[in-house]
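Re: [ENG-882] Designed sequences occasionally contain unexpected residues at chain ends

Forwarding the minimal case from QA. Structure tokens:
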């Protein structure tokens, strides 16, 4: 079939009750055409893979390991000119006629006229978009959430000092979600591009420089359903350690133990919680250039005893995270012994980079097992010394000339691969290496791997990507919403920013305040900036820690950091929802309904989980913030005032706070006075925001550190249910009976219900009815209940049996 722009693929999801199907019970069919052959294969219930092999194409290897789901059983091939169908239960796909395909999922039918193209050194597919069809995703882009009308590369690259409008950034994911209710995933890591109606308004084009030509059609009614299916295909992220949700002290960079400890002491003195410190490249050298690859504590004056330092930090509940890069430069401690593991030139000689910002040297070929083993020895030495997490920088790779070659023989491929063919997989295989080596040598430890590059499926290797070297200005702040939301619905859930901004700019307390208020409701909270002192004298020296800002700024930031700590049980439950169902922690407003135009327009706000709406302040001097409250009822987060949804509102704002709302019917669990995620809080506060409909929430808890706790069943689920009738709310708390090390034998629960100002009318704790008339008497004992009239909170102690608490309040 000859490709032309006038005859593209068309995807048209249609409701079709009676499609004509041939009753063939296999899950794979193939048909040949003059220009090549098409193959179709069913994955699970909601995914069909389509592959085209062009005649004479000799670069069609699939070197990606993104897909971990196995195709459905059956491997019968069919070919010929007549119509064909394959069916599994109520799933089927049909070839109606030459070059036109219909994919059926239950009663939903997608009609596709397939068009392969080859032009300008690229091969790929074209799709005709419907007039009102929107597309979202594609990885890391500072573009509007609806990517239609835009084109961008599928090639991981750094974007130093970026702001709004940045297209090509550090982390490409060739996955798109259509507002019509399906996803498209192209499992091809080679240098490529998406053009989503940019060159031609009704054309979606996906082009790749090499590799297998395929796409996966993923069925779903909304973003939630599509992401559930997609993350079953490529994997989900393991639940991180609880400390990952704490405050991370980070900058470019701490230059000595004395400096680090002085700043930490100031943070603690001024009552800022801290759970980790992150050390940039000065741990292995005294300058920015020509030290990369040492991977040792070189300066004994600046770092006299790293083992003792890390133990001192650990004793305070603070983890140490070190930076690494995949480059080894000339003149460093490891250059000579590492050369045999470097990527090579066309003569198979170790390639010497001469245009790399940090110095001359080589790039480790991390597709090779021996290179991975060598690199891991450097990691393991530091982990044994006390390192708790890692920061993998420059993993795009940042500098990767086209004439560099990589050896993929350990992956089963004999020929050398050019840089452009494997570039997007480099960071992915680095992520894989660190993850698998940890599982091998430190099987009980949950991995924290801060990085900025990878590919589809990298999330299953425990990665925490940040959004690159963003400009320290308001445009940089505004860019974070589409970057974060786009990555989140691309299946990469822990994307976050250098809070406060990284590159250049000025010290602006208002910008810093607004950025950190926003960052409190993102997957990782890590203020980070550039403060190099005399090493970078011409540029501004702007510290990232709040103790270096004015008192008003410190007070506000302290409030939001502590708010983040108080929400740890809610935030940690979001990681469980992600690991179990593929739900991102950060969700666009249209997450459950991409057909509502108001939800689509509300792209400068988002949902933190299903219950908390966040509307960050994104412009300097803002005094009023327009936002959209979806249908239903909502409560202001701080004052707990009820507001009807389904409307746009203008909220007056001051520097102290950003607009935050809670969905009616939500249960929000929190801790009081938590200063470190490693401590066990005495009280679990639970606030139920009343609604007119029944609702529920499940809280996840485990020991917060042991790898595999969720997978092995070493956790507890606490269930909260609210039933509403004409005169009362009935609230039930129960447990699945789960057990884990450190689980409290009893839990102190403070239950709050805004608008309920009188004590309960009926109460049962651990299957025993309590006389509500005694609730005002605060008694000692392990199984007591107390109503505090000052706060209108019910305090109970429970061992969380199958039905730990049943309580009724009058409406």
């Amino acid at each position: 079939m000859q490709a032309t722009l006038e005859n593209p693929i068309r995807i048209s999801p249609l409701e079709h009750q009676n499609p004509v199907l041939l009753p063939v019970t296999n899950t794979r069919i193939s048909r040949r055409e003059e220009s090549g052959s098409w193959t179709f294969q069913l994955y699970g219930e909601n995914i069909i893979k389509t592959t085209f092999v062009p005649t004479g194409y000799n670069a069609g290897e699939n070197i990606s390991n993104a897909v971990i789901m196995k195709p459905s059983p059956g491997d019968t091939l069919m070919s010929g000119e007549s119509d064909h169908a394959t069916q599994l239960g109520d799933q089927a796909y049909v070839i109606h006629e030459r070059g036109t395909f219909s994919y059926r999922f239950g009663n939903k039918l997608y009609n596709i006229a397939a068009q392969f193209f080859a032009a300008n050194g690229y091969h790929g597919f074209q799709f005709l978009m419907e007039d009102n069809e929107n597309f979202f995703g594609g990885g890391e882009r500072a573009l509007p959430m609806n990517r239609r009308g835009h084109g961008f590369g599928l090639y991981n690259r750094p974007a130093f000092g970026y702001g709004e409008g940045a297209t090509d950034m550090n982390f490409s994911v060739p996955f798109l979600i259509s507002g019509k209710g399906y996803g498209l995933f192209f499992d091809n890591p080679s240098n490529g591009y998406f053009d989503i109606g940019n060159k031609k308004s009704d054309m979606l084009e996906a082009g790749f420089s090499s590799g297998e030509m395929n796409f996966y059609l993923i069925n779903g009614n909304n973003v939630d359903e599509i992401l559930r299916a997609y993350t079953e295909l490529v994997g989900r992220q393991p639940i991180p350690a609880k400390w990952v949700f704490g405050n991370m002290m980070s900058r470019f960079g701490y230059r000595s133990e004395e400096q680090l400890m002085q700043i930490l002491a100031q943070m603690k003195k001024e009552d800022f919680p801290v759970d980790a410190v992150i050390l940039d490249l000065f741990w292995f050298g005294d300058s920015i250039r020509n030290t990369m690859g040492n991977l040792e504590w070189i300066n004994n004056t600046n770092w006299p005893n790293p083992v003792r330092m890390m133990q001192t930090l650990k004793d305070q509940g603070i983890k140490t995270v070190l930076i690494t890069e995949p480059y080894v430069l000339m003149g460093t401690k490891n250059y000579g012994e590492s050369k045999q593991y470097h990527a090579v030139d066309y003569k198979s000689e170790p390639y010497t980079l001469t245009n790399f910002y940090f110095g001359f040297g080589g790039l480790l070929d991390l597709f090779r097992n021996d290179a991975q083993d060598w690199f891991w020895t450097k990691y393991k030495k530091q982990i044994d010394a006390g390192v708790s997490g890692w920061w993998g920088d420059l993993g795009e790779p940042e500098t990767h000339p086209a004439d560099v070659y990589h050896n993929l023989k350990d992956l089963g491929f004999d020929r050398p691969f050019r840089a452009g063919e494997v570039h997007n997989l480099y960071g992915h295989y680095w992520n894989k290496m660190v993850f698998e080596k940890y599982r091998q040598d430190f099987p009980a430890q949950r991995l924290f791997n801060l990085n900025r590059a990878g590919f589809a499926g990298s999330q299953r290797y425990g990665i925490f990507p940040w959004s690159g070297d963003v400009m320290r200005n308001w445009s940089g702040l505004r860019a974070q919403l589409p970057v974060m939301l786009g990555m989140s619905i691309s299946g990469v859930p822990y994307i976050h920013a250098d809070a406060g901004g990284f590159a250049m700019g000025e010290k602006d307390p208002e910008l810093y305040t607004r950025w950190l208020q926003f960052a409190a409701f993102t997957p990782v909270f890590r203020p980070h900036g550039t403060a190099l002192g005399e090493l970078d004298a011409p540029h501004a020296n702007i510290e990232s820690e709040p103790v270096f800002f004015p008192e008003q700024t410190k007070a506000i930031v302290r409030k939001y950091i502590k708010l983040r700590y108080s929400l740890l049980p809610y935030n940690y439950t979001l990681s469980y929802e992600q690991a179990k169902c593929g739900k991102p922690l950060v969700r666009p407003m249209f997450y459950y309904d991409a057909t509502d135009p108001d939800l689509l327009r509300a792209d400068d706000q988002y949902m933190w989980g299903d219950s908390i709406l966040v509307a960050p302040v994104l412009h300097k001097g803002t005094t009023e913030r327009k936002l959209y409250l979806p249908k239903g009822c909502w409560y202001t987060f701080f004052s707990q005032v009820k507001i009807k949804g389904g409307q746009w509102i203008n909220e007056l704002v001051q520097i102290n706070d950003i607009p935050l709302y809670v969905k009616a019917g939500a249960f929000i669990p929190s801790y009081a006075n938590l200063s470190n995620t490693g401590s066990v809080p005495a009280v679990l506060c639970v606030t139920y925001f009343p609604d007119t409909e029944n609702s529920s929430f499940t809280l996840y808890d485990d020991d917060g550190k042991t790898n595999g706790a969720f997978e092995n069943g070493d956790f507890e689920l606490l269930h909260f249910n609210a039933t509403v009738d004409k005169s009362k709310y009935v609230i039930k708390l129960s447990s699945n009976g789960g057990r884990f090390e450190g689980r409290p034998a009893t839990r102190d629960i403070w239950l709050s219900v805004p608008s309920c100002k009188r004590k309960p009318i009926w109460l049962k704790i651990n299957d025993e009815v309590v006389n509500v008339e005694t609730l005002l008497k605060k008694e000692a004992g392990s199984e007591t209940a107390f109503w505090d009239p000052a706060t209108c909170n019910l305090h109970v102690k429970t061992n969380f049996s199958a039905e730990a608490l049943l309580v009724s309040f009058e409406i």
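QA comment: On inspection the terminal residues look reasonable. The longest helix spans residues 419-441. Proposing we downgrade this to a documentation issue.
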